[in-house]
């Protein structure tokens, strides 16, 4: 992810001192961007060929959840397929899904890996690989239900694949912490460790109800840079904001730093109103080593982008860590 | 309802392919349209004399719920009485109500019938008739509490009055299906049958939590055309959308077709924000046999309108049926 | 019900001053009284031929709920059929049931009528008649779901059948009041009136959460004598006790008297422990005009009996009325 | 409070007949008014020197709640300190707080008193005094947890300090009434009396779930004029509106008048959308004896102002009293 | 309390090694010990004249809660008045109560003080004094609602009355910790401090949901010996057990020792079954300096006793402290 | 497990026709069988040397949950160690546990394997092996939290270890189905498949809320014989009963037969009353090929035994299958 690509970016607005700022043309993908869609949000983007490819959550007008491939030259203007991804068998024949949502994508070694929330008697983590974003090979679900927000590391750690995830229940889960699990083969998973838990209300209320991994971690000299979401339960429902953590490169179950303040919280109109008001939900981040572009779902309705300078952001995380 | 009247209508916007579209001048009735009102929504309209009459839910600034008569030449510009409807005895002397809300109106044989959610030790279905929208004769409540969304068919079926309704509980009911009941005399009701249930989440999530009848059914050659609302329970509350079904003419407990996608879901600003965000709630539909105009409550605050071409809509329902 | 029959009875125990007392041989029907039963409780008894007949709730060992006919010479020793009642069509062809439980029985004019909680997309009130307790003719459900504890009066009132019932929700309903409804024909029901509501906690806590009609009312000079159950919600669940009310003969929606203290509350071992601890639930009462025998379900597991002197009981109700 | 000060004010808009109206330049304080703030709302203002001082709830970007002093010449343009108030010992050494929010301020006799919701093993009422809005002396918490919305009267009553408050629980309390308590010394409190309870849903639904004192009461000839908030629990969460009551001058536990309609309910965009949608929450009121200016939190995000003519408002309250 | 009285006692059963053991003749007071009672439990006992007096919670058969005086020569055989205590004005004229339950009694200086859970718009702590257990003078409620388990210390501490209590909510509170408050005059209360909180589930699960003070503290050289109840929330409801703590003599908000294991948990039949199964709830303790007798409510139905040797108990608490 | 051992057994009582019957000397292990125990239940037994060994859940009097080894000559009279099992590192160094409960034990190939509910940031499945029931080697937890009732098959299936388990949430989970997972090495797990789900209420209510694997499956010619528990949610809490299923030998995710009626449900006094009333919870079964002995926890307090003839039981399951 950190190879030099020409990532989409916009400089910090004049007068702003924020470490992360919104794209002035947000939302970059509207709710009706494909003919059948009710909403497009919580989607993943990765450098591909001479531009970018993505896997997008497009809920249709029956509010069925599915994931769609898309392509872009600049990371901002997207052609999203009108038909959802159809899976072929990867390391399993069981490739059924009641629904698919909240995809993440990363390149590992020789191919692209997609993870998503996969409906198999409840939400769990689906896995597939693709070489071309045309044919996708579905693998065994990583875990038993109930789980959400499965995010792969972009390289093996100590010789094994590593995945962040958030064990859940079968509804609008009112709790949730981030764990890491390892696999030798993308089929069997174990060595589960707790990575990050919710914070005490008094310490950092925006992430006191539940948290979940967001983007595929970005490798930096300081450690793995991970954007995640945190939730506070107000009297009028959940409010989702974005923070970031830096995990140890060798043992990413160790949190080195973690933002006490949020980086981005719902405040723009397209974040405050929509199918689910007050949601900022990061699912992907691009880095060229200097600049960072984050893709996030807004109000469970559209896709927005936010930007940061990587070193400045890392400094901010370290200086504002819990 | 299907007699040729000059119904309010606006052609489909250029570039739109939607089978149903919003009126460009929405909302047609604002929240403060009468001096005492906090909000006006979930209201019913019917052809009357050389124009239209309606029964409107106007919550006052004490947030007391009541129904008011109103009149219009064109179905769009309304004069709503400043005083609520006062009932006189119909087939009963018990005409008390703790509150009245969500009215529907239809002509049957020789008079107009109004049904509404009537507060009698909880919500149940109130019934009244009027010849002139001046004097209203209240009849026995159709059912025991707890019930909401009682909607009469515009003619007798097999010699009996027929009513759709949604059995409920005494709060913000988190379940609800549509039933039909019959009466020989608008006083005693029976032959209760289940008509439509909520859908599996995977199949059509916008209507997976509860559904309720909306408009008085429109008689067509294909069957009874019924607009209804469906609800999904998001982590930030209920979201109400509109769909449609076609019921068998002879036995309307049989659902012939029913939309898997919604027809209209909250997306306009006046639907996304208001006293109850994310509500589209149809209570009336006008048809001249070719065009259809639907009146719906938006965000429990104002009244909006949406339009369709009848045959195209029927085709859509049949092609997109569950 | 008040004709002179030789009802089962046992005198008040020496030393007791209670107005109602338990049968010393309780429980009269054990949980395994028929080969398939897990529990037999909440059952109804009526004079029949030269003895008694009954309709019994026998949950089987799959914990499926159904009703069974039974016969007894003395009202205490019972032969309960090993097969549940199979219905034939009465005034309807819709005689399906997901489950049947909590029956009541009464004679009206020329036949025996049975009501019970009938599973039709949730609990509602099933109705059937029989002449011989062999063939049962099922009629239309009285009401839409959700309803429980439907109890018929033993004669028409003002020319109409009258039924008490308790509107409910679709689970372990945490509320419930008693209503009355009327029918000209046992098919269509209306004229619904609220009869009795739960009491304020401070006034009579045993009946502050929900109440429901129990026995078929007994006609007395003072009014209709009705045994009912009341529920308090303790920190360890619902506790069901028995009280009694006297309703106006002409207009039984008027409560003349109603016990502030309970008549019988869970205290015997077979009431305190069982499938649902702490339940006393009356479903039938026999009277010869002087003595009264009540049949009640105990701990949702077995059937118990309790006795009273009718005049003394009426005096007690009047003197201890709310 | 009623001394002649030059309070901020704007005349009623042309065409409006509302007894209270919003400031045309709302919100007067934006969510990012100080560098660290996520939101500034539910704040208190009092005349101070030749202008005004205030105590402001500023949640920072970790969503930690704290109170900040601020100053203004005109009551509209504010300089809010960038650092929260640091307390010194008043009548106690226990001046710890897990959090501080929703301050109120009043002058009594010789100093300014601040009350707020103080985090001590849950929310309770914190008390402090200041002479200069620079040094604040924290006193004993008034009550055991759990309590919110503690509001002092601006003078002693019968020789004792008097405080309104709302006993709560430890979460998003779904109930709440207003009580009064007295203290001889701002350290020990007693003589607790219930003042106002929520209203029946049918009578005034906007205040049927919970109510809480808002502004420091204004002494008028008619009694203590108190702005308070009321809450209705919609299917999409709590909606907070503003009403007013007049309490007896001698015995303020007696409510003389209380508005059945609300005075101001969420309708402006900054009230409908924000961190908690649909909140109007008064915390302070200025009066010059003729005009009134109310400061209220909007959507738990910003501060708005609303105005009224005092005598007209009092007449309105008396004429529209429950 | 620690003066030499001839307290009721029974030696430890042979073979037992328990530090606290049940009286072999339990329950000492049955549920029907007075004519009107449904249950007698959670009651308080104190040395009086040449024997003992007590204040008893007797719920009547309407399940109304009230407190009754009673007398005993030996502390085991009791004469409980058949009429509840009627209060006269103490330091207030407001002596109304919606209900009274769970009394405690202690001698301080010149009179006996009774505290109980007093119904005033919800549960709070009522206070009264008596010289003779015939005339009781009711004082101001100590706190705002909602509170339960108010227990006075038997002497002033630093010149002030001191009371333990447990802030609650208005239902079957699922949380609860023990606080202390002080009063110069039994009228105004303040200086509230948290004393003991629930334990982590892993550390001591029987007291992980809520705890509450039980007996009036016994003064010992080691500190104040306090019996309290702890609650675990099982899948079938709350289970109440008894533990003990030793509080600092000078500053009883400091817990010196506290039992990790319970001292007594529901295991006897009269503790396992009754109106509320699985409850052991201490409300009083007698000590002669060597032996201790505890009175506790069992299953919210009857009164039991348990015994211990004081020094052995103190050693046990110290050795098994958290 | 099916090798010829002399298993504990008692013939069916005279007059009984039950396919499974209780041991007449139940409970076989009392709640205080070791000095520190509050309760001993939900425990596992396996043939060992010339008798039996077991792993027992003994909650101590702080209600801390832990597992203890025990030994018996006859399977009925047990010596349980007074100290809990202390783990040494198996295939991991992470051998911490917040608590351990509900063990199961089986022999696979060369050693005994123990699984249990292991507290690691919530309940998950712990694994250990032992050769001698003295030294236990703890391995990686099988799954992420939240999971309960992990039960190993007694031999590898298709070359892999196989485990049944029940994904849960972090409280008194109100749902739960049985899944199977596979592992090549007891460290990494995958190939998760749903095996059995709860039944519709109408079909078999005793298992309609949640189900969980009980005993280590017994290999028979008909398939794997598995005893499991099923739960119904009554208005007074969960009721746990025992049923049995036969799973396909080759692919145990296929259920061949499953009992519609329960085999054993709470009815004996020690099952109806205790720390958690109404619990029958099987955790182990011994078979000599002809006779079967099941060990089950009763009321979360003691251990009971029940017996069956294997072939008769299998015939019963096949004849009474859903």
UniProtKB/TrEMBL annotation, chains A, B, C, D, E, F:
- Note the coiled coil stretches, chain numbering: none
Keywords in UniProt for this one?
Answer: Glycosidase, Glycosyltransferase, Hydrolase, Transferase
* Protein's name according to its UniProt entry: Glycosidase
Pfam families for the chain: Glyco_hydro_130
The molecular function GO annotations come to: glycosyltransferase activity; hydrolase activity, acting on glycosyl bonds
Family membership, please give it: Belongs to the glycosyl hydrolase 130 family.
* Database matches in PANTHER family: 1,4-BETA-MANNOSYL-N-ACETYLGLUCOSAMINE PHOSPHORYLASE (PTHR34106:SF1), GLYCOSIDASE (PTHR34106)
Gene3D superfamilies documented for this protein:
Glycosyl hydrolase domain, family 43
Q: Fetch the InterPro entries from UniProt.
A: Glyco_hydro_beta-prop_sf (IPR023296), Mannoside_phosphorylase (IPR007184)
TM region positions: none
